[in-house]
């Protein structure tokens, strides 16, 4: 716990802060990802929505901190950091591993009396459907091959041994957190849940996304885009518009 700044700022990245913002969106990256993944989202939604991208330990400017290989611990620490930022109406967006983490943080903030406006979950099985695919037990070469197949990390790292030495332990730790996650039943969320996915995602079948409907007392909808696991990169404008539209209605 000592690794966190007292006010939780270690977890917070605001690329386009604005006093005009009327809503806030907490964004949770995928396994091996970092807050900067959501820079384009922040730019697109500013100034009306203040995008807070969550920076996990062990990467970029937090690379000297130990990785967190427990989803429960990650959610506890992230929720503590984000709670003071719930002074505006807020929603959460998480992609892949980040979807599970966003859900768990939403549960904690709801329990603290600050329920979100909405939760977006992207490219991830519902919490009670998570399975251990054994990715965190792959060899380094197999892990690199898996990343390459998803096309989710810049291919330039594959020829840079020094960079790989930095990236792979973090990715493996994130995979361990995602694959050893254990869902604990509890109250459903009191906000709409919006699921998004790519039609050709090799990680999760489209039909799996429907199970997220079991985790809300409010409405549920599913949007399917062209593309694979990182469909949201090629469909960025459409994804942002889906979020912006819901925040306007909300």
Report on this structure.
- It contains seven helices and seven strands.
- It has 250 residues and is of the alpha/beta class.
- The protein has one domain (9-131, 182-249): Alpha/Beta hydrolase fold, catalytic domain (Rossmann fold).
- Helix 1 links the parallel strand 2 and strand 3.
- A seven-stranded mixed sheet has the order 1-3-2-4-5-6-7, sandwiched between helices.
- The termini are far apart.
Radius of gyration, CA atoms, in whole angstroms: 17 Å
**Looking at the structure, what is the overall shape?**
globular
What distance separates the N and C termini? 35 Å
The helix count comes to 7
Largest pleated sheet:
7 strands, mixed
Relative strand content: 5-15%
Report the top-level CATH class.
Alpha Beta
CATH architecture: 3-Layer(aba) Sandwich
Structural class: alpha/beta
Mean pLDDT: 90
- The helix-strand sequence is EEHEHEHEHHEEHH
Family: Belongs to the thioesterase family.
Organism: Streptomyces alkaliterrae
GO molecular function, one term: hydrolase activity
Domain Thioesterase TesA-like: 26-247
Keywords:
250 residues; alpha/beta; Rossmann fold; 7 helices; 14% strand; globular; AB_hydrolase_fold; TEII
Secondary structure: elements and pairs:
Blueprint: E1 12-13, E2 23-28, H1 39-45, E3 49-54, H2 71-82, E4 90-95, H3 97-111, E5 119-122, H4 140-150, H5 161-179, E6 193-198, E7 220-225, H6 231-234, H7 236-249
Parallel strand pairs: 2-3, 2-4, 4-5, 5-6, 6-7
Antiparallel strand pairs: 1-3
Helix pairs in contact: 1-7, 2-3
Organism: Streptomyces alkaliterrae
Protein name: Alpha/beta fold hydrolase
Pfam families: Thioesterase (PF00975)
